[in-house]
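Re: weekly structure request thread

Next one in the queue (319 aa):
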Amino acid sequence: MKRFVAMLMALVCLCTMVPVGMAEEPNPIPVLSKDEITPTPKGIHHYMLVCIDSWAADLNKSGNHTDGMILVTVDEYANRVMLTSFIRDMLIQRPDGDFGRLNNVLDYFGRGNGGIEALVDTLNTHFNLEIEKYIVVDFRQVENIINAIGGVDIEITAREANYLRNYPLSASSTTPALSGGGTYRFTGHAAVIYMRIRKVANIDGETQDVGRTRRARTVLTTIADSLKDITYDEAVALLNVVLENTVTTNMSAAEIMDALDLAMKMKGTPIESIRMPLDGTYEPMPVSGMATQQIDFIANREALREFLVDPFVLVEDDE
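Done, posted below.
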């Protein structure tokens, strides 16, 4: 009888050792080689904005996870400005061939700019992009940039207001002081805290990383709208603030001035946005103890291409 009980207990232990959701293996990820990536049409420019999950990031140290990843795309021929946000917990194939989370790529692949280069390469091969230029910031730098423009107006829900009131923010962090759902002018610090909210539904009812990416796009869109009447001299001053609050960038001085000229040309253009992955194209997939989202990259690549490249305004080069 004791032997029977021991065998029964052993079977129970074996069954419970396999965590729920771990029985499945992730689907193969159809990454593209660099030669397979579709060239960027003439007139379209990609700028990758990456925010590190730190108030004092140092690329020469470990622990640099990417809290926010937004691609800014400008189509100067179609007169469009587009924001594409990427959820941080999507399951990707790292440059070394192993599975991983998108937000861990920068930290995993080395010191200096090696990690950010690996992150950009990962986005390119997974989403059929040719991102070349990037700017990396941390939370403190985002705070400083928002403060430099005098804050940002954000509409929040009652639940978001309740969350923020329970956070150690000063009464002067918003104007007027938080009292419930509504529109407030947020200081830089309060705006960063707002963008990091995950467990509370936003205006669109979204939570977790989906809600967080929406909040980041909301803040960037609101900033762009607030600068639609900015003068060239004011834009140069703001650009200097941005450059003083950057962890790293691969843009030269000439490229930065070209981007400023393009921004001035496009100022006041309505901002369009999209999130990767789209609703209905991803599902939870625990991998090696990590909570990740397995996504349909083929469907999302096609949707992103359709969003970024309007087929009716492509300029063909006859030469």
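The domain at 27-139+227-319 is CATH 3.40.630.190 (Aminopeptidase). Residues 89 and 292 are 5 Å apart (CA to CA).
Next request, please.
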